[in-house]
Amino acid sequence: MINNLLDVLNTLNYENIYLFANWGVIPFWLLLIIFPRSAVTNFFAQSIIAPLLLASAYVFVAYNIFLEGNILDSFELYNGLNGLYSMFSDEAFLLIFWLHFLSISLFLGAWIVRDSQKYLVSKFLVIISLILTYFTGPVGLFIYWFIRIFFAKKVSLND
C-alpha cells in the first residue's frame, strides 16, 4: 500500500502535473462549448470540481517550493520584469503560475456560459468568446463583455 503511494508520488513530477493539467482542462472546456446547458456540464465544469483539482496540484507544487526553501524567491515577482523572468526560469514557479492561469480562465469560461444564458447571447458568439478565453484569458472576456452589451441592452462594468 505504501509502495503504491510512493509510486504515485514519484510520477507527480512537474512535467506530468503540467501535462495532466493541460490535457485535463480540455474536457471541461469542451463541455462548456458543446453542451453549455447540460446537467453534466453544470456538475463538472460549473462546479468546484475543476478548480479543486487544479488547486490540489497548485498546493502540491507550492509545498514542494516550500520544501526546497525557495519560497522567498517568489518575491522576485515584484522586482520588475527581470525578477519575473528570473522567477519563471524555475519550473516550479512557472508551473504554479500556469495552474493559476488555467484555473482563472476556466472560471471565466464557466461565468461566460452562465451569464450568456441569462442574457440569451447567441451560442455562436459565446463559442467564439470561450475559445478566445481559453487561449487568451482576459481578451476573450473583453470580447464577450462587448458582445453582451448588445444582448443585455446596457453597459455594466460590475456584474
Note down, in words, how this protein is organized.
There is one protein chain. The protein is an all-alpha fold and 159 residues long. It has one domain (2-152). 77% of the residues lie in helices and 0% in strands. The protein has helices spanning 2-11, 14-24, 26-34, 39-44, 49-68, 81-88, 91-119, 123-136, 138-152. Helix 8 runs antiparallel to helix 9. The mean pLDDT is 88.
How do the helices and strands line up, and which of them pair or pack?
Layout lengths: L1 H10 L2 H11 L1 H9 L4 H6 L4 H20 L12 H8 L2 H29 L3 H14 L1 H15 L7
Helix pairs in contact: 2-7, 3-7, 3-8, 5-7, 7-8, 7-9, 8-9
Can you give me a brief rundown of this structure?
The chain is an all-alpha fold.
Which terms summarize this structure?
159 residues, mainly alpha
% residues in beta strands: under 5%
Structural class call reads: mainly alpha
Fraction in helix: over 70%
How many separate structural domains? 1
Name the poorly predicted regions. none
Instruction: Note the overall shape.
Output: flat
The average pLDDT is 88
Count of distinct strands: 0
Distance between the termini: 49 Å
Q: Report the sheet with the most strands, covering strand number, pairing sense and barrel closure.
A: none
- Count of DSSP H/I helices: 9
- What would you report as the Rg, rounded to the nearest angstrom? 18 Å
Give helix and strand order, one letter per element, not per position.
Answer: HHHHHHHHH
